[in-house]
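Progress against Task 2.4 (sequence-to-structure conversion) is shown through the following example record, which the project officer requested during the mid-term review.
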Amino acid sequence: MLIKDLSELSQREVEDLMKRGDLGDLKDAVLPIIEEVREGGDDAVREYTRRFDSAEVIEIAVTREEMRESLRAIDQRLLEHLQRAASKIREFHEEEKASEWYREISEGITLGQKITPLKRVGAYVPGGRAAYPSTALMTIIPAKVAGVSEVVVCTPPRPDAKIHPATLAACQIAGADQVFKVGGVQAIAAMAHGTDTIPRVDKIVGPGNAYVTTAKRMVRDECEIDFPAGPSEVLIIADERAKPGNVAWDMLAQCEHDPRAIAVLTTTSPRLAAEVEEVINSEIKNCERREIITESLKHSAILKAKTLDECIRFSNSFAPEHLQIITKDPEEVLERIEHAGSIFIGNNTPAAAGDYASGTNHVLPTAGHAMRHSGLNTDHFTKKTTIQIVNKKGLRALRETITTLAEAEGLFAHAKAIQARFEEE
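Structure tokens generated for the chain above:
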């Protein structure tokens, strides 16, 4: 882990932290898989599932009985908390859901906006190193709240060719219409192009590893995607108010996602920096996923700053997926933040709260893409169409402006289309 004064970072060190989104080296590996799935359909999906997941999948689709059985297979307490988390997530997305509007904005001119849900959406739910039922909730629920009629889910099978029952249970609770036992690049390709079993979708959402993220970016000619959502990351801005144990565990929590995950602390407190480092070094040996964490920490950092201004400037250039603010006056810091996927304020608001149960969505742009993308929300699942009704009086008020601009652009038929309506006058 890099430990250094923020002001003394070399250009190379800055570049090493920032290049977390560089996926160019994976395109050559991903493209052949996409092409083979496009040509070979289900057979190619089965072959790559055998190769990458060590699973012999005969029936790609999960049956209704398998879905129902998952609710009986998991611990009742887990089931109850999945339902509780689902309720919180649904409540939040109901609040953010956009409304149609339609009104007369000036005499004779009525404007509005019609909102139409996408017909079919594909949700990618990661697997492999761990089961992620929370991601099933986070991808399916906002789609259903937005009114999507069909949500299909692809998620990697275990070596026994089955999906983890907790993930299946979450899919059932969230309202998935179909679930398929396929993950990785082959899942993205199948949803983008369609196979005999897996339907082609209008849009693919959900996080994944670097290969999945690369595949999503490469199929955009076939279907839309939400945004690049690759290996997870957190940036923490903290001063002396932060508790070292809390900060250390927040960093360790982020690192356990993936060897390419990243955790960065920027702090004005030398004491906090030292104590967080000490806690991490002490506790890592007790972590169940310590091999993944150890690898992730190699490209994580503790950066010591002289002022909060330095921390804020760094944050805005980093554009983190998760941003935690633990300072004396967090509102003042918040006001100056320009780019972040999701923001968590205070000692008792860890990123893990948003990962599971606060209600906000944990599918967020990574690798600096928070500079131009919002986290997953109901708008990702709809199209907005403008509506206008203009009567003769309203058109008369616009007549001179339209014709003047049309003629200035050399589009004289546009001007005539307006003038023709007044010829009888």
